[in-house]
Amino acid sequence: xxxxxxxxxxxxxxxxxxxxTLLVLCAxxxxxxxxxxxVGVALPSIATDLGLSTATLQWIVSGxxxxxxxxxxxxxRAADLLGRRRVFLIAxxxxxxxxxxxxxxxxxxxxxxxxxxxxxxxAFTAPAGLSIITTTFKEGPQRNRALSIYTTxxxxxFSMGLVLSGLLTExxxxxxxxxxxxxxxIALAFALKLIPHSAREEGRGGYDLPGAVTxxxxxxLLVFTVxxxxxxxxxxARTLLSFLATAALLxxxxxxxxxxxxxxxxLGVLRSGSQVRAQLGAAAFFGSYVAFQFIVTQYMxxxxxxxxxxxxxxxxxxxxxVALSSTKIxxxxxxxxxxxxxAVGFTLLVVGYAxxxxxxxxxxxxxxxxxxxxxxxxxxxxxxxxxNIQATNGVADEEQGMVSGLLNTSVQVGGALFLAVVTAxxxxxxxxxxxPQAVLDSYRPGLAVVTVIALAGLxxxxxxxxxxxxxxSLVVAKSAEAPAAAETPVSAEEPVxxxx
Length: 500
What we know:
Residues 478-500 are annotated as: Disordered. It is found in: Cell membrane. Keywords: Antibiotic resistance, Cell membrane, Membrane, Transmembrane, Transmembrane helix, Transport. The protein is mostly helical and 500 residues long. The chain is 77% helix and 0% strand. It is globular, with a radius of gyration of 22 Å.
């Protein structure tokens, strides 16, 4: 769907309907992110109430990741082919029903099944919602502003999930499962009125079923393998064979996509350096943060003896900083471009993680924990919206769902992969059953790995700074020959070759 020149999205002032559309999409993304983080604090209560073992308990988290990370590519392409509005509405309704089911069941397997269904529905709402924004708001300052608000809601949802979980778990873990249901139903009611219709892509060569099967199977197996690797052993035959099978499926997927008349993922998109940097940066950003949150939650509750609510409140400054900056990031990106904003954000991320290495068995909230949380909040506010803007700029409307699916896949697979790696690092020497100091010492290598992951994200971003400088030089040179050329703003790195 191409945005008409005189549509509200091209004007400086947004109509109430346009604001309503954006807020509905933000609510869905907020719920997706909320559900990722909110279950963590409730796990001990769930285990006690349902009598679940540790091995079974992990699947309450892993089931959601499997559904979400494994089906995002299919979800993104389905939004392009079947209609973004239709896919979004159906998936949001399924999300609400699965939330209701999760809060009412009395069986571990049924709870895991409900989590998988929620992850599956999120795999369709996330790329559909993002592509609705990128096809409704014109590329440039208007879209940047919309994306900054949208992605900030996601980051806020992830941060606030811990706080809400701490509060609700005091009543019952079931409330952490039930809370998203009424919110999703309210969002669905407004979405029926506000979400614009989008045309289906009829006659574009079919649905690429072989690509959908191999791509989805590859993502599901990859996520399953990295989730299970710490338990099975990274060097075990089971893990190695799973990785080999994943590689074979990915090779088959690439071959199919190259030959397909209507590919699930058009590989030419990845010829763009800015697109590749956005995808890898998203994996490093979310992977490092998820692993950091996992370690810090264990540190605060197991070593410092803090309650679930105290732990949640410790993360609150980061969430508040992200929420308060939601309307400002678009203007910052317009002025400085995505590469510079992402680079600054990753720098803050590295410093925040490195600072946390100074923690001890004595709480140091004002000196260590609070500064780290503020740095991480600022980093999240800068990096996450900018990555979304960079990934979707310069992409045709009919491929926005596909690119959105790619980006969300990078986020989820990065989260699963790096969390599994960091978990393996902190449990490698078996220090978990030792003294408190031994446990803390086992956390430090994990924090160091988290810092290195964030540093890798920064290094991935740096080549984009040189690209932007060359583009600015071209604009300046052209403006000397033709003053009108200077009127074209350089608000973000142009993904050269994105349409090849």
